[in-house]
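Researcher: Structure prediction, please.
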Amino acid sequence: MKKQTYVLGKNKIFVERFSPKEKKFKEPLLFVHGSFGGAFMWNKIVKYLTGKGFECVIFSLRGHKPSARVNLSIVGMEDYVYDIELVVRELELKNPVVIGHSMAGLLVLMYAKKVGSSIKSIISIDPSPSVEVQGAGDSEVIENIPLTYNVTDAGLPLNPLRAMKMMPDIGMMDAMKMRMKLGIESGKARRDRKKGISIPKNLINIPLLIIGGELGKSVPFGISIESDRKMANYYDADFVEIKGATHPGILMGKYAEKTAEAISNWVKK
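Model: Predicted structure follows.
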């Protein structure tokens, strides 16, 4: 496996590109992380998929480590979509499969709505719902969302034993490493999602897979399996449920390989 590292654009977006010894799939896989996270969240998934012959690209959105710090209080969902565009353009990724988790599960749909058939397909893992599925949020609650917030503000307990009860599929060491790497998130981007982002299903004209974690709602900032199913039903998407997986654990826990297998099997079809 060959790894290349890049720093792109004025916001110094951190990117890693992994090339397998023997490439068995023509199109690259581009991975976009969710709230608080970074490129590191995909490490288990990418290790598995690169071993299967896929070229994989991971990156950290602006303001997320190790990309440069920015004023996240003014960063919205469209800004994050631009980060995806930047990586695709600068690395000259041709017809990529674009994969997003949580907040980025919605970002990749926004990106697909914008660029259409220039990407091969989309995979949305425990995605934040579109307004067509969720409806618009309460305006008073939306206005109370802070300028920026962290995973503790979002409800993950500081007590490690209490936190681990919410994430039974993640081992103690992995949970501690994750907690140390998670950063702050944009309140503006969260307000954008709560107000409702419209992605009519007639504007998504490429194959779509939605992957949901059975225990996605075990953490306060997670996405329920019921929401995942509603998204799949609305967009006429293929759907895979990962049994036993929590919202962060679907990428970083003991069932991460199941998620990677689901990606591999679907993409190869």
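Model: The longest strand covers residues 238-246.
Researcher: Thanks, that helps.
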